[in-house]
Amino acid sequence: DAGVKDLSDLHKFADKFGKKMYGIEPGSNQLMMDAIADPQFGLDGWQVVESSEAGMLSEVGYEIKEKQFIVFQGWAPRPMNTMYDFKYLTGGDKFFGPNFGAATVTTQVRKGYLQECSNVAQFLKNLAFDIDMENVGMGYLINDGMKPEDGALKSITLHKDRLDAWLAGVTTFDGKPGLAAVKEKLGL
User: Do 59 and 22 meet the contact criterion of CB atoms below 8 Å apart?
Assistant: First the structure.
């Protein structure tokens, strides 16, 4: 809201940020260090504070609560995207890749598997996750301490319409509609 929208804006607010960027584990912050070293941003004297993901997010939570400026390493999918109200800075394509690093979620199987199992192939063709769903689902595991099965069930229960798309054209072993079987099994 103050006008920091791009990496090139950081130098204008150096005192507000304390000339610090918060990172995660040592060895995982090179891209931030490279951005600091790039003369186009005017970040001479800035440093990356390395700790851990939990340590960084603790600092983020505190600074946001105190309505202070903070710049940190963020990525998706990750629950931080639903826990905190923040914006990704533009201008970092050279370091992080286009479209803020272009996070995607994909499914992979061994060569030939889809030809051998056409029903599974149909399911995998239908199966689609989005980053928002992944952010929330990872939060169930990381923040809420849920078992993966419980987190997945909660996600599906809150978004039952996804099952319709995921199971379109998928059948049980005996050829019955897969959607009805799954809904019955899950109590939906």
Answer: yes
Task: Write the DSSP assignment of 23-80 as a string of letters.
Answer: -SSTTS-HHHHHHHH-GGG--TT-EEE---HHHHHHHHHHHHHTT----B---SSSTH
Flag whether pLDDT at 175 surpasses 90.
yes
* Predicted pLDDT at 188: 87
**Three-class DSSP category at 173:** coil
Would you list the DSSP string of 92-158?
Answer: -HHHH-TGGG---------TTHHHH-HHHHHHHHH----HHHHHHHHHHHHTT---HHHHHHHHHHH
pLDDT band at 171 (very low <50, low <70, confident <90, very high): very high
- Using left for φ > 0, alpha for ψ between -120 and 50, and beta otherwise, residue 97 falls in left
Is there a contact between 121 and 169 (Cβ–Cβ < 8 Å)?
no
